[in-house]
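Per reviewer request, we include the raw input and output of the structure prediction for the construct analysed in the revised manuscript.
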Amino acid sequence: MRLNKAITLGAAVFAASLPFLFHLAPPAQAAAEPTPAYAANGDLLPVGNYREWIYLTSGVDMSYSPKPADMTMFDNVFVNPAAYRSFLATGTWPDKTVLVLEVREAKSKGSINQHGHFQGTQLMGFEVHVKDERRFPNKWAFFDFDSPEKSGSLIPQGAPCYSCHMAHAAVDTTFVQFYPTLLPIAEVKKTLSAAYLKDEAGAAQTK
């Protein structure tokens, strides 16, 4: 009987303390998505867990010049989730968009593979395209990285990549024409650039 009374008393004390305990516990919050961050010298700090971002596309031996690449490579493109969600809704990229281009070696011999290519573990290139409207005169900037774990250096605005993207990119100076799940959205939202539409019209006439 005494044991039952002790248990009952303990349960009553615990129940009375529950509101106090829940009051002390902070509410659970989703972690805020990181935005582009820079070192004092202007370098872009490592983007971290980009492999957990939204995968957009892969290319093999892509080249924007008549001369083909000297070796077979894969390139993979990722974008931060917040920018992806915004693109789905609007057909264009919001401020603080971060696009990652990861270039990997292509291999043909390995395991049971007999034909074609697969991606190897060696990273051969790493670039980041950032939209930061207050920081860059033309809103966008490219950064080149020696390694994803190190900071990336700003590619000067006069570099060919800027003029190429400006002259041929489908949406907001980005090559959405190579992102198969986003191009239809841009078509529906009517956000395709005049430069891209001109390229497409010219290509259609030569077919």
